[in-house]
Amino acid sequence: MTDDPRYLKGAPVAERILAEVREQALAATEDGWKPKLVSITVGDVDAVDVYVRNQRRKAQAAGIDFEERNFPATVSPAELEASIHGMNADPRVTGIIMQRPLPAAIPVRSMQRAIHPLKDVEGMHPASIGNIVYNELDLAPCTAAASVELLKATGLDLKGLEVVVVGHSEIVGKPIAFLLLSEGATVTVCHHMTRSLASHARRADALFVAVGKPRLIRADMVKPGAAVIDIGINTERDADGRERVVGDVDTESVKHVASWITPVPGGVGPVTVSILLRNTMVALNRQRNLYEASYGAR
Ligand SMILES: NC(=O)C1=CN([C@@H]2O[C@H](COP(=O)(O)OP(=O)(O)OC[C@H]3O[C@@H](n4cnc5c(N)ncnc54)[C@H](OP(=O)(O)O)[C@@H]3O)[C@@H](O)[C@H]2O)C=CC1
Ligand SMILES: Nc1nc(=O)c2c([nH]1)NC[C@@H]1CN(c3ccc(C(=O)N[C@@H](CCC(=O)O)C(=O)O)cc3)C=[N+]21
């Protein structure tokens, strides 16, 4: 079933990006600039496990060092911030990603701000997010950038394309909208106060869904021939009690209407990981350029 040509799979896109990352990482290492990504997790969060596991696997395959720093759920904001400052100052650390969610006692935004913009490989610091508003797109939030890469893989021309984004979180929906605007698409953003999600969604040539609700998008909400990018990752139990991961789109019905649909798993997720590693190399090159501009070329 996953051989259906309508499935817009993540693996080929992810592999292409990872091959470029690997080449850059090897060249940088030879020049004495070994890339290293540090992942921060706080407490034990199932939702993050898969992501971190894949980050470690793909980083190692690409020649990027990967270190996991797990803090207890009881860590204070001040302690966490002090650790981040330590990583900012450590020249061996190229990039820092702070996995979400954080415990309620820790203010996500101030922690995001504590990561130096030059090491912010998720593109979530206000200074980084600001760049995409100015059409500087080389380091964008990973999931948003991954979703747009998948749309590009359809070959559709983004200029003037009618796009609807469902979900407006700061980490996924909003940056998708900004990236698409920069590419010339006409973008409508829907959220929980939108009056008729179905009537907006049905107009879309490309529909992005990042909400966290299984089967939110059904076949009657999709324009025939549309590209559907399903970003949701939800865990459900099936009838015999087994856990399975599903997106926000009712894939079985929508695939008869859409021309392209990203599967979950196997769609946006793997591309997100490869973009994180690509961002690590963008960060490394920025640090290296700054160093060489300050101290002269090696
Ligand atoms: N594949 C990947 O790499 C990643 C996948 N994800 C997945 O993507 C999904 C979204 O993540 P994230 O953006 O962090 O989640 P958030 O919970 O932060 O945001 C969800 C968004 O959906 C909107 N929303 C809620 N209910 C509705 C509704 N009925 N109709 C329309 N919009 C609605 C919310 O709007 P409002 O604020 O107005 O309520 C909000 O903007 C999750 O399933 C998550 O697991 C996340 C990150 C990476
Ligand atoms: N700061 C932050 N940024 C995030 O982007 C972020 C986060 N925190 N917290 C958790 C969520 C979730 N997320 C996933 C990314 C890829 C896969 C992924 O690779 N999924 C594979 C799963 C394959 C398998 O099951 O092994 C797939 O969809 O095919 C999963 C989940 C990123 N998130």
From TrEMBL:
Q: Which pathway?
A: One-carbon metabolism; tetrahydrofolate interconversion
**Superkingdom of source:** Bacteria
Q: Would I find Oxidoreductase among this entry's keywords?
A: yes
Pfam families, from UniProt? THF_DHG_CYH (PF00763), THF_DHG_CYH_C (PF02882)
List the Gene3D superfamilies. Answer: Leucine Dehydrogenase, chain A, domain 1, NAD(P)-binding Rossmann-like Domain
Keyword Oxidoreductase part of the UniProt annotation:
yes
- Catalysis performed (reactions): (6R)-5,10-methenyltetrahydrofolate + H2O = (6R)-10-formyltetrahydrofolate + H(+); (6R)-5,10-methylene-5,6,7,8-tetrahydrofolate + NADP(+) = (6R)-5,10-methenyltetrahydrofolate + NADPH
Q: Which residues form the Tetrahydrofolate dehydrogenase/cyclohydrolase catalytic domain?
A: 8-122
| Similarity comment text for this entry | Belongs to the tetrahydrofolate dehydrogenase/cyclohydrolase family.
What is the annotated quaternary arrangement, including any partners? Homodimer.
Q: What does this protein do?
A: Catalyzes the oxidation of 5,10-methylenetetrahydrofolate to 5,10-methenyltetrahydrofolate and then the hydrolysis of 5,10-methenyltetrahydrofolate to 10-formyltetrahydrofolate.
Put simply, this protein is called: Bifunctional protein FolD
